[in-house]
Specification:
The chain is of the alpha+beta class and about 325 residues long. The protein folds into three domains: about 1-30 and about 195-328, Serine Threonine Protein Phosphatase 5, Tetratricopeptide repeat, CATH 1.25.40.10; about 30-115, Sandwich (Immunoglobulin-like); about 120-180, Tetratricopeptide repeat domain (Serine Threonine Protein Phosphatase 5, Tetratricopeptide repeat, Alpha Horseshoe), CATH 1.25.40. Helix content is about 50%, strand content about 15%. It is built from twelve helices and seven strands. The strands form two sheets. The protein has a four-stranded antiparallel sheet, with no helix packed on it. The chain has a three-stranded mixed sheet with strand order 4-1-7, with no helix packed on it. The longest helix has 22 residues, at about 120-145. Residues about 1-30 and about 235-240 have low confidence and may be disordered.
């Protein structure tokens, strides 16, 4: 992590001391989560227009339906956190899995639809279950801060499924947390090699480059993420750029700010908020750009909005201090 480069002088000393915080990769303080995945046949080929049903299982009746695209992929955003049953169906074949949606954390559910028990042979089902178990163990380790353990589990999964691009993405994330940026870059690059339109992996590369102050490379990666997110939205009737697209814009704002381009950073944070007004970290960073312009009343609004959306977020302490100082 590295300090903010404000590019301006003359702010009150009390504020300047608080402003020296760090802008990092996209936060996940949204009020809803998402579910995504892929549906393939027994040969691993994508299944187009499979119906995916996502049903909430915690008292309130909520049911969402989405279809896969030509790549067999589906995504549903705006899901309240909780336990769901996710079912894929096509040509009288179906398969179901339990999934837990968390705030800002994409639940990943992948399906193999072929004739047979639960849509797979016993051998295939056993292999799929083993891979899923390793993946889930990796996610659990990562969330617990055990990044070495996470890397080990995802590598075990890769040994069983060499084209597991999500495994490589998570390996890249873990190495990023360990600040082993060369290894993180290699993992994200491998994920993109396996899935050319992997928006999150491009966002990961942007974060890695940004952390090393390689701002041009970071901007290129983040721009590609935004481009891919927009293309995915355009290909989906009524679609939006989704979480990944918002994160790409947020990343671009962070990169611009750290490169001393305050005006450009402000525009990116504002664009992110147009897509998702509840993106808490964008409110915080927009507040920082407003402080930099001495628009203190407007900055207070952004910091207070951040605190409403993410009272225990990564910037909560800084936002609270900023509000207290600016209101004096």
């Amino acid at each position: 992590m590295f300090p903010v480069l404000s590019g301006r002088r003359g702010l009150m000393l009390a504020i300047a001391a608080i402003v020296a915080v760090v802008m990092v990769s996209p936060g996940f303080a949204q009020s809803t989560g998402m579910c995504k995945g892929k549906v393939v046949d027994g040969k691993g080929q994508p299944i187009d227009k499979a119906k995916v049903t996502i049903e909430f299982k915690e008292g309130i009746t909520r049911k969402y339906e989405v279809q896969t695209n030509k790549k067999g992929e589906f995504i549903q955003i705006g899901l309240p956190p909780g336990q769901y049953v996710v079912t894929a169906e096509k040509d009288k074949l179906s398969q179901s899995f339990d999934a837990r949606v968390r705030l800002g954390d994409a639940a990943e559910v992948n399906f193999v639809l072929v004739p047979g028990a639960a849509g797979a042979s016993k051998e295939e089902a056993a292999k799929n279950a083993a891979i899923k178990s390793l993946f889930d163990q990796g996610v659990t380790a990562s969330k617990a801060g055990d990044h070495d353990g996470a890397i080990a589990k995802f590598n075990e999964a890769v040994a069983m499924l060499p084209d597991c691009y999500d495994c490589y993405y998570n390996i890249g994330y873990a190495f990023t947390q360990k600040k082993e940026y060369d290894k993180a870059e290699a993992a994200f690059t491998k994920a993109i090699e396996l899935k050319a339109d992997y928006v999150e992996a491009y966002n990961g590369l942007a974060t890695v480059f940004n952390a090393q102050k390689k701002f041009e490379q970071a901007q290129t990666a983040s721009s590609k993420a935004a481009e891919l997110a927009a293309a995915a939205a355009a290909a989906t009737p009524g679609g939006t750029t989704g979480t990944a697209g918002v994160d790409a814009l947020y990343n671009q704002g962070v990169i611009a700010w750290n490169a001393g381009k305050a005006d450009e950073a402000q525009k990116k944070f504002e664009e992110a908020l147009k897509l998702n007004p509840d993106h808490a970290d964008s409110h915080f960073q927009l507040g920082m750009t407003l402080v930099n312009q001495n628009k203190l009343a407007d900055a207070v609004v952004e910091f207070e909005t951040y605190l409403k959306l993410a009272p225990e977020g990564q910037y909560a302490a800084q936002a609270t201090a900023m509000v207290k100082t600016l209101k004096k």
